[in-house]
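Ticket #4471: structure export looks truncated?
Reporter: QA, pipeline team
Priority: medium

Steps to reproduce: submit the single chain below to the structure queue and open the exported record.
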Amino acid sequence: MVFKFYSLLYYIGLVIVDYSYPSDTTIFQGRRNPKQQRLASSGDSDDGGLVPPPRKKRHLDTEETMLQPTNGCLQHNGSVDQPSSSSTVNGSANGDAQEPSDSCNIKGRSSQEIVRLIGQHLKLIGLNQTAEVLMQESGCRLEHPAATQFRHHVMDGEWHKVSADLNELQALVGNSCQYFSDMKFLICEQKYLEYLEDGKVLDALHVLRNELTPLQHNIDKVHILSSYMMCSGRDELMKRANWEGKGHKSRTLLMDMIQQFLPPHIMLPPKRLHMLLTQAVELQRKQCLFHNTTFDDSIETVSLLTDHKCSLEQIPCETVQILTEHCDEVWFCRFSPNGKKLATGSKDASIIIYDVDPETLTVEQSITLDGHSYGVSYLSWSPDGELLMACGPEDCPDLWVWNVNTGVLRLKLSHSSDDSLTACSWHKDGQKFVCGGIRGQFYQCDLEGSVLDSWEGVRVNCLWCRSDGKTVLAADTRQRIRSYNFDELSDQNLIQEDHPIMSFTVNKTDRLALLNVVSQGVHLWDLQDKCLVRKFQGVTQGHFSIHSCFGGVNHDFIASGSEDNKVYLWHIKHELPIATLTGHTRAVTCVSWNPVYHQMLASVSDDCTVRIWGPAAKYRKQKSNKSGKFYIDDLLRN
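Actual output as written to the record:
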C-alpha cells in the first residue's frame, strides 16, 4: 500500500511538473534561461533539491591563457572556468585528434595515445600502480582530472557531487558534445533505482519529479521508470529493470555508457585497447581466404603475437572417401539440414541415404530407396530433415516424398501423364511444397498430394522457396528468374541472364543467388539489388545440368562441379578459384557442402561415384582401431 500511495503521489506530481509549474521556476540546470544552463547548479543537493542562483562568469584578461586538454596531455598555461565556445571534440570540428603535447616526455601523437591505451588496460586488469608509474614517467595523463573526479564520485555513489562534476565536464567540452542530456538521464536513472532499492521512496520520487521529468528526455522510459515504484522488493525491481543492483557492477556499466559520450581527450572510451585488438583480429579473419571455423568474438582464444593465417589444407580439399554403391551415373546429392545425413540420386533409379560421422567426416550407407523408373535428378529435404522429395529427368511425370527414417514412401504425386516434374522445393513450414518442369507445369501442393494452386504456362528449370514462407523463385526457359507469390497471385522479374539458367541456389541470408548458366559458368546475383555481383572463373559449363552450392561457416565459399571432371572452390569475394579438386573421371554434376560440419563436402559424377572431401589428414579425426575409438592428429584452429 505504501508503494501504491507514493506512486499515486508521483502521477499527481507529474501533472504538476509537466503543466503547472510557474514560468519563473528554475528546474535542473536552469530551464528558465538557456544561456545560464551550463552555469547553474544541478539541484541535486542535500537541502531537498533547491537550486542555488547561477554563478557569475569570470571575465578573462587578454593575457590570461586557458587550460587546454590536448590529446590527454596536460598543459599548464593558466586556468579558466569556461572554455571558448569554439572548443570542439578531439580538438577539431570533424573529430580528429589534437596535436601531441610538448609537456609529455613521449613525442608524437600516436605514441602518446598508445601510452594512454596501455595505461587504461593496466587499470582494467588491476595493475593500478603500474599504470600510475607509466603515466608519471611518460608525462601523459590517462584522462582529464575533472573526468577522474567525476569517475570517483560516480563509483562512490556521491550523487550530490556528480551533477557539479558533469557541469564542469560540460564547460570543458563546450558546445561540441551534444549528449549531455543522455548522460544526465543515465545518472538520474541510476540514482533513482538505487534509492528504490534502499527503500528511499520519497528520495526516488524527488528524482523522478524534479530531475528526470524536467529533462524532457526519453519520456517513454520515464513512464517505465515510474512503474518500478510499484515493485514489492529488491528482487522484483532488479528483474523488471534488468538491473544489476546498487554497487560496483552497475556503476561500472553506467561509466562505460557515459564514456562513449565524452571526447577521448577528456575520457577514453571503455576498454579501448581490447576493442582495437578485437577489431584487428576480426578483420584478419574476414580477409583470410581459407578461414572456415566459427568466429569467436573473444581475443582470448587467439595469439596476438602473430597474424591470423589459415591454410588451404583446412578446407575440404582432399578425398576422404569414395562411394561406389550406385551402378550408373550419379546426378544429384544433398546433405540434410542438420548435416547428419547425405542423400544421393542416380540414373540407376535409386536414392541412397548415408549417415554422416562428424568425427571422421565420413559416411556410411543407411537405406536405399528404389522405384524411380526414370532415375533421380533432383532432391530436396524438408526443413525438419524427416522427409525427402525426389524428382526425375525431363520425361518423368512423377514426384516422390519419402520418410528417410523409416524408408516408407509418404507420397507419390502424379498429376498427369503429360507432366514433366523435374524441380521441387519445400516451404519453410514443411507442410507445403512447389514442383514444376519445362513443359509448363508449376504446382503448389500439400502433403496429401492435393494441388492447392497452379501457375499456367511457366516452364520451370529450377525452384526455390524463400524464407518468408510465401514467395517462390523460379528459373524459367526465358533465361530469367522470377518471383511468384501464390497467395497474392503476383509475380515479378528479379534476374535476367543472356543465356539459359540450368540451376540456381540461394544462400542462408536469402539475399544472394548462385546461378549455373549455359556457356557462362557460375554467376553470383544480389536478389535485393537485382544486380550481378560476380562471375566466377575456371568452371566448364555447357548444356549439362550442374548444381553449385554455398558453403562454409558464413557461406563464404562457393563450390561447383564442372564438365572437365573437376570440382572448383572459390572464396565469395574472389573470381579466381582458390582450389581445384581432381579425382572424378567424368563430368561432376552436383556438389553439396555440409551445412553443419563445415569441413565436409560431397560431389557426384557421371563416373558413377560419390566423393567425400575433407581437410588434410592432420586437421581431421581418424579411427585408430577396430574398437571405434578416435584420436586427434590436430585440432582445427581459428
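Status: closed, not a bug. The export was complete when the record was re-opened. Leaving a note from the reviewer for reference: Residues 143-267 form one domain.
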